[in-house]
UniProtKB/TrEMBL annotation:
Keywords linked to the UniProt accession: Signal
UniProt cross-references to PROSITE patterns, sorted A to Z: PROKAR_LIPOPROTEIN
Official protein name in the record: Repeat protein (TIGR03806 family)
Signal sequence region: 1-24
Naturally occurring in which organism (per UniProt): Flavobacterium album
Signal recorded as keyword: yes
């Protein structure tokens, strides 16, 4: 009994020591974790993705390192059915600030946006194939692009700014899909990621990231989560005019359409965008006006075929929007880059929306 009593006291003493010393170093100072990410803005972009140390463990697991925060969008840009994982990292002591619901957050110098494109259920063994990781790095002079192509073993990704194609085969809805996936060049990235001639991100706007996200320690709104980790300053509005998941059939049809067109087309078809034109503005906050969606608007730009309107009520055959989304010809398709095949589910959404409209255009 005495020996058992001694061992019991020893165990209690050990636990108390651990509890008292937890969170301190040998000098008694509180331990503050530090992100392992390495970013020298003068040297970046690096020649390989591993040098940034964004991920811990095996790179292919895409397990984010400390302060590399995952995030998601209400609706995502279509890229030939590729799946995507998004992360953000910022250096210590800086924060993004809110500008407007529909404007990209004002990110500080040193911010890195990380987006990895991959496919699940690939042929023949239904494995995951990681194709590319794109970075946008905020330097003092503005945003720069960096695209990294993964090797076959998924142990490393190498910088490639010239673009290339890669054959991908995967199972989708009990069918086998085969494409030559297009990895964009820096010039092609700039076609979409540019406003008034200046490189900019597309996705991280309050309207797109105002959603719940399940983190390792629980579920939380992403905006408040970014505040908690020190990546976003407080002071943004409590009510944000937000996009929705276009696939959520519980949401109003037009709201789903507006959300899809904003993330897939609105960065070009808006003020200062690559395809800025007076007859169409697909930015989410603008499309409460049907005319900005092209409804009953006669096309004056990008005219192809015999379509009478950009969106002809109750008539997909006479709708230029539908024609371009259903087309794979480089000179006729929309978007012009970012896809090589038709987004069939989104096309069905547009067809449903057009057919649901009231009386045909005059």
């Amino acid at each position: 009994m005495k020996k058992q009593h001694f061992l019991y006291l020893l165990a209690i003493t050990t636990l108390l020591f651990i509890a008292i010393s937890c969170g301190t170093d040998d000098s008694g100072q509180e331990y503050v974790p530090v992100s392992p990410v390495v970013l020298d803005l003068d040297a970046a972009p690096y020649d390989s993705l591993s040098k940034y140390k964004f991920f811990e463990g095996e790179m292919k697991n895409l397990q984010p390192a400390y302060k590399v925060i995952p995030y998601d969008l209400n609706s995502a840009l279509f890229t030939d059915y590729a799946l995507k994982k998004r992360f953000i990292w910022m250096p210590e002591g800086v924060k993004a600030t809110y500008a407007d619901d529909g404007k990209v957050l004002e990110f500080p110098v040193g911010t890195v946006l990380i987006k990895t494109f991959y496919y699940d259920n690939t042929v023949p063994n239904r494995e995951t194939d990681i194709v590319e990781t794109r970075l946008m790095i905020k330097k003092a002079t503005g945003w720069v692009f960096a695209t990294y192509i993964w090797n076959e073993d998924h142990t490393e990704a190498v910088l490639n700014m010239n673009g290339r194609s890669r054959r991908v085969m995967w199972y989708q809805n009990d069918a086998t899909r085969i494409i030559n996936y297009k990895i964009p060049s820096a010039m092609e990235c700039a076609l979409c990621h540019k406003s008034n001639g200046v490189p900019v991100p597309i996705g991280p706007k309050p309207q797109n990231i105002n959603k719940m996200y399940t983190y390792a320690d629980g579920t939380e709104n992403q905006l408040s989560g970014w505040v908690k980790v020190g990546y976003l300053a407080e002071g943004y509005p409590s009510q944000i005019n937000s996009t929705v998941n276009w696939e959520d059939t519980s949401k109003p049809l037009e709201l789903r359409v507006r959300s899809y067109l904003d993330i897939n087309c609105g960065h070009c078809h808006t003020d200062g965008g690559q395809c800025n034109m007076p007859s169409m503005n697909l930015a989410f906050e603008k499309t409460t006006d049907p005319a900005n969606l092209g409804v009953c608007v006669e096309p004056h730009d990008f005219v192809t075929g015999d379509q009478t309107h950009i969106v002809a009520k109750q008539n997909i055959d006479m709708s230029l929007l539908y024609f371009r989304m259903s087309n794979n010809e480089m000179s006729e398709m929309m978007p012009m880059v970012g896809r090589t095949i038709v987004h069939e589910e989104a096309l069905a959404l547009i067809e449903q929306w057009i057919n649901s409209m009231d009386a045909p255009c005059p």
